[in-house]
Amino acid sequence: MADYKIVIPARYGSSRLPGKPLIMLAGKPMIQHVYERALATGVQDIVIATDDERIRDAALAFGADVVMTSPDHENGTERIAEVAQIKGWDAEAVIVNLQGDEPLIPQSLIEMTAASLLENPQAGMSSVCTPLKHAADAFDPNVVKVVLDRAHFAMYFSRASIPWDRDAYKISTEQMTGKMPVYRHIGMYGYRVSFLQQYTRMEPCALEATESLEQLRALWYGVKIHMSVIDQAPGHGVDTQDDVVRVEELLLGLN
After folding, report:
1. Stated pTM of the model
2. Which residues, including other chains, have CB under 8 Å from residue 218's CB and lie 6 or more apart?
3. Which of these, 94, 104, 113, 96, lies nearest to 37 by C-alpha position?
């Protein structure tokens, strides 16, 4: 299955790790590890999207296709929309957003995100979630939760604990509800180009601003988001210096 495209947004600026895509891991810049994960899928159209010449030069050096995008984008979705426009991709084309700080992302997860859209033509977006195992995560606002309908389309995303078990949580919040799974949202996205064309014209909405979750803009405007459910979260991303050490050890262990 390779009827889709992959875009890897990569920004140089990071409050915690400036120059993050170019951090060396096991002898290669991190962005190269991510690119090689994308190559393993057999997809023909793989693009690194950046607004920084240092990232562009590094990516060109290892043979990647690079598109320079505006520095004014608020998020990766806007950056990918610009890439789709520059490339002139068809409205029904499917794009997987592969984050530039996920050098351990499994190939199967990339393919699952694409298949979620290819098999559900009514969806404009796709994403991934996994059942939470610890009650502390269910009530942690840094852990984004999602509620699904019976066909695995997202009904709502929140930093609050959803669904709220009225009877059980009235007594205690030390345990999660046992009536249904509580799903953690994993920020892996797929897009149909037609949705991206719409997205650039969508005004930010109150839900998005309140929860600080960009995917709520899609739900606000009636766009369907199909969710794949996986057993556990994928390998470590890189957000801190401790992550750099941990991920490098894991990469070296793979070789």
Report:
1. 0.91
2. 124, 125, 195, 199, 225
3. 104
Q: Spell out the residues 6+ positions from residue 22 whose beta carbon is closer than 8 angstroms to its own.
A: 12, 29, 30, 31, 54, 55, 58
Angle at which helix 107-118 crosses helix 30-39, to 10 degrees, equals: 60
pLDDT of 245 reads 82
CA distance 203 to 255: 46
Q: Which residues, other chains included, contact 94 with Cβ-Cβ below 8 Å and sequence gap of 6+?
A: 3, 4, 5, 114, 117, 118, 190, 191, 192, 193
Q: Look up residue 76 and give its amino acid.
A: G
Q: Could you give the CA distance from residue 51 to residue 56 in angstroms, rounded to a whole number?
A: 8
pLDDT value at residue 15: 64
Tally Cβ neighbours within 10 Å of residue 176. Answer: 22
